[in-house]
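[job 0417] fold request received: Formimidoylglutamase
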Amino acid sequence: MTQWQPVSPALWQGRDDRAEAANALRLCQTIEISRTFSPGHYCDRIALLGFACDEGVKRNHGRPGAAGAPDALRKALANLACHAGHERLVDMGNILAPGADLEGAQQALRDAVHRCQQAGVRTFVLGGGHETAFGHGAGVYDAFAAERIGIINLDAHLDLRFAGRPSSGTPFRQLAQLCDQQQRGFHYACFGVSRAANTQALWDEAQTRRVTVVEDLYCDDAQATLAAFIGRVDKIYLTVDLDVLPGAAMPAVSAPAALGVPLSTLLRLIEPICRSGKLQAVDMVEFNPRFDNDGSAARVAARLGWQIVYWWK
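[job 0417] inference complete; emitting C-alpha cells
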C-alpha cells in the first residue's frame, strides 16, 4: 500500500500512573501500534485508521486543514483513561492523499477498510474531510455484499450534492450511486441536519432517495426514529461530521454550526447505535486543527471518540 504509513509512537504520549495501581492506565499505555498494515493479525479488534486528506474540502470551497486531523486527534486521545473495551484499539496508521488525487486516496481507503473488515477487524477512521465517507462506506459495502448496510450520519449537512467530481459534499450521493450499480438498497439516515445549510435541491434528493432525516431542532425526540432505522438494517456504518456540534463547542471545522446539536444530545443518539450489536464501522470527520487555538475542540472530539469505543458492543 504505497499511500499508507505507520504512525509515530511519539503521538501516543501521556501521564503514567502505573505506580499507583496496575490498572491505572491510559490509552497511550494500552494502544498497540502496528508497524505494518496487517489486519489479519488483529481479529476482533478495532483498527484506528487515519485518512489524512482535505482535498474534498478544498473542492467543496471549504476551509482546508483537515488533513492534519488524524494525528491531532491521536494526541488528544492519548492521555484519556483506558476502561473496558479501549484495550481493543490498534493503530493501523494513516492513508495519505498526495497532491490533488482525491479519487486515488478514496480508493486506497476503500481497499484498506475492505481488508480490515474481511479480517474481522472493525474500523474507526479519523478523517479528513467528509470525503472520507465514500472510501470508508464503499469498503464496508465491499466486505458485506449480501447484507443491508445502514449509514447513520450525524451531520448538519446531507452531503448529497451533485458535482462534476467528488468532494466533501458528495459522499452519500456517491454511495447511493454505488448501491444502484450493485443493485442493493441504499439505507441512509441523517440526524442533526440544518435546514438553513441545505438547499431545497438537497432536500429533494433526500426525499427521492428515501433518506431518513431529522433536523437539528428535533434531535431531542429522535430516539424512536433511530430505533426504527436500526431495526431495518443488518450492519451499521456511523459517520460523525463534527460540524453537527454547536459552533461554540466545535469551531475547528470547515463550516461551524450556528445552532448545532449539543454533545449530550448527540451522545444519547450514539449510545444505542453502539450497543445495538450492529455497529461495524465509525468515522469522525471535518476536524480542522488550524482553527483549534487552545486544543479544546480536539478534547471534545476525543471525548466523543473515547465514548464510542467504550460503548461499542
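[job 0417] notes: The radius of gyration is 18 Å. The mean pLDDT is 97.
[job 0417] exit 0
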